[in-house]
């Protein structure tokens, strides 16, 4: 882990209430998938090229027509107000200042409109298919109207994973934060939290429906198999995010680092493929990009930074990751991510 990220982590641990720290850090089950996330990237070894002009390194990345300065993006994580009073507004400001895309969670602590007003860079909106599907559609419409450039549909949570550190599935959050984006759309008499739980009956047809509702491309997040990725693409997905949900859903699921090649092979370049899970250094990102990922997302390191120092610390953390990636790219003989290919990495 980069030194700055480690410092942010220790500061966050000291500042956050113990139950909040446990909630952010928890994985599901025995936390085996959680523990293997970081280690998965370290199993790869690099085969650098030499005598290449790397006097200038350019990390510019294009994702679905949006150009950003860095291939790092902020993964969707719930309830940023638990980490900092400015919540997601600070996160999108810091990430945008670092030249990074942010994926804003359905379970955000602030309104979509307030987050959009604070954003200094591009953002996408993460959606769950909720039991009241009208809630999902209403949020997608609002996100599109507020400036979101894509929808990221999370599909690995038909039920929320049980986390022993929090004695259930999530920490207690007041209704005014849990329902901050949902209350206005509830049917009279509905129980908000029940209506907002994930719908376990979801099927691939929801991809096309959400794309039509928001007139935005829909990426599918939480895919760990090539055949499932292809199924999503054939149903209309504009992209795929390889993810174990931070090790918070199915324990003993394969690490993202091991799942990524299978997904890339199946998709065959038809749509962008992003990946998250255990990215803690520029070298981790280099491995993912060399395998063929178009971008990488980071979750917990952004929360640590947010708790440690708000928007500025978020920017500093993402800048540090980008700087580290630029350095290792040059040492590996690549002047930009596009210069990498699967021959750069090996497990042998």
Detailed description of the structure:
With 348 residues, the chain is α/β, with parallel strands linked by helices. It has a single domain, classed as Alpha-Beta Barrel (TIM Barrel). It is built from 13 helices and twelve strands. An eight-stranded parallel β-barrel has the order 4-5-6-7-8-9-10-11, surrounded by eight helices. Helix 10 packs across helix 11. The mean pLDDT is 95.
Tell me briefly what this model is.
By secondary structure, this protein is an alpha/beta fold. It is built from 13 helices and 12 strands.
CATH topology: TIM Barrel
CATH architecture: Alpha-Beta Barrel
Mean pLDDT: 95
Q: Give the structural class.
A: alpha/beta
| CATH H level, superfamily name | Aldolase class I
Which value, in Å, is the CA radius of gyration? 19 Å
Principal-axis shape equals globular
From the structure above, extract its key features.
single chain; 348 residues; alpha/beta; TIM Barrel; eight-stranded parallel β-barrel; two-stranded antiparallel sheet; 12 strands; 42% helix
Helix/strand layout:
Elements: H1 3-15, H2 18-25, H3 32-42, E1 45-46, E2 61-63, E3 66-68, E4 72-74, H4 87-97, E5 101-104, H5 112-118, E6 123-127, H6 133-146, E7 151-154, H7 175-178, H8 192-195, H9 205-214, E8 218-223, H10 226-234, E9 239-242, H11 256-267, E10 273-276, H12 282-291, E11 295-298, H13 300-331, E12 345-346
Parallel strand pairs: 4-5, 4-11, 5-6, 6-7, 7-8, 8-9, 9-10, 10-11
Antiparallel strand pairs: 1-12, 2-3
Helix pairs in contact: 1-13, 4-5, 4-13, 5-6, 10-11, 12-13
